[in-house]
Amino acid sequence: MANATPLQPYLLIAYYEWMVDNDWTPQVLVDCSYPDVDVPQQFANDGKIVLNIAPEAVANFELNHDYLSFSARFSGKSLNVYIPMNSIVAVYARENDQGIMFSPNMYGDDDNQEPPQGPDNHDNGDGPDDEPPTPPKGRPNLKVVK
């Protein structure tokens, strides 16, 4: 099973299509600390950003097994966004919070890219038997930036 393709891209694409088919607003939570993430950092909060990826909110949308990219308007300015697949933490519908949170190992070990070590992600040397962190509970905390 060492050569299995990563699970995360399949789940992300399936959840995205399911949300669009149900006329919900798909949103992604992105960890901005990963290499090659190109998002408007001024809208990030604690190193994370929530982005609306509904078809009516973006242009030049591309979602594949390696990355998500699109153009969107931020504070009236059109910007290009590039998000490597392994930096996407979750995808969920704005209307009902239905979705999925991804664990770091869902992307697969072919990439050999570990998540960045931050204050909440210390390697204590215990090895691969460590339990994954518990995802935060409750609704995502979003605020309008004007």
3D architecture notes:
This protein is mainly beta and 146 residues long. The protein has a domain of 100 residues: SspB-like (SH3 type barrels, Roll). 10% of the residues lie in helices and 28% in strands. The protein contains 1 helix and 7 strands. A 4-stranded antiparallel beta sheet has the order 2-1-6-7. β6 and β7 form a beta hairpin. The radius of gyration is 15 Å and the shape is globular. About 14% of the residues have low confidence.
Give descriptors for this structure.
146 residues; SH3 type barrels; 3-stranded antiparallel β-sheet; 1 helix; 10% helix
CATH topology of the domain at 8-107, what is it called? SH3 type barrels
How does the helix and strand content classify structurally?
Answer: mainly beta
Q: Kindly state the number of beta strands.
A: 7
Give the quaternary arrangement of the chains.
Answer: single chain
Rounded radius of gyration (Å): 15 Å
Question: What is the percent of helical residues?
Answer: under 10%
How does the overall form come out from the CA principal axes? globular
Mean pLDDT: 81
Q: Tell me which CATH architecture of the domain at 8-107 applies here.
A: Roll
H-E order: HEEEEEEE
CATH class of the domain at 8-107: Mainly Beta
| Portion in strands | 25-35%
CATH level-four homologous superfamily name of the domain at 8-107: SspB-like
Number of helices: 1
Sheet with most strands: strand arrangement: 2-1-6-7
